[in-house]
Design a protein that fits this description.
Order of helices and strands: EEHHH
Shape: globular
Mean pLDDT: 95
Distance between the termini: 27 Å
Strand order of the largest sheet: 1-2
Number of domains: 1
Radius of gyration: 15 Å
Strand content: 5-15%
Low-confidence stretches: none
Structural class: mainly alpha
């Protein structure tokens, strides 16, 4: 798996999926070798990156990263 923040805890094809915090095999290997890995759900971080590519880009102040969303915080007991 290549998740950068959340991976399946067990079989991802079961009806009731379970998750755990952590990086998948591919993402972990990239990080171990010095690569920065970002999730497609890290909207705040992606906004920052996009503003570096396009100086005219206006950052959305409401954008949040995956670990900040309600599902993540509730599922992992961080509320």
């Amino acid at each position: 798996a290549c998740g950068s923040q959340v991976i399946y805890d067990g079989n991802r094809f079961t009806e009731e999926k379970k998750y755990q915090i952590g990086a998948g095999v591919c993402a972990a290997q990239l990080m171990r070798n010095g690569f920065k890995v970002i999730s497609q759900r890290d909207y705040a971080s992606l906004e920052q990156l996009y503003s570096k590519i396009d100086p005219t880009h206006i950052i959305n102040p409401d954008a949040t990263d995956h670990h900040q969303i309600e599902w993540y915080r509730t599922y992992f007991g961080m509320n």
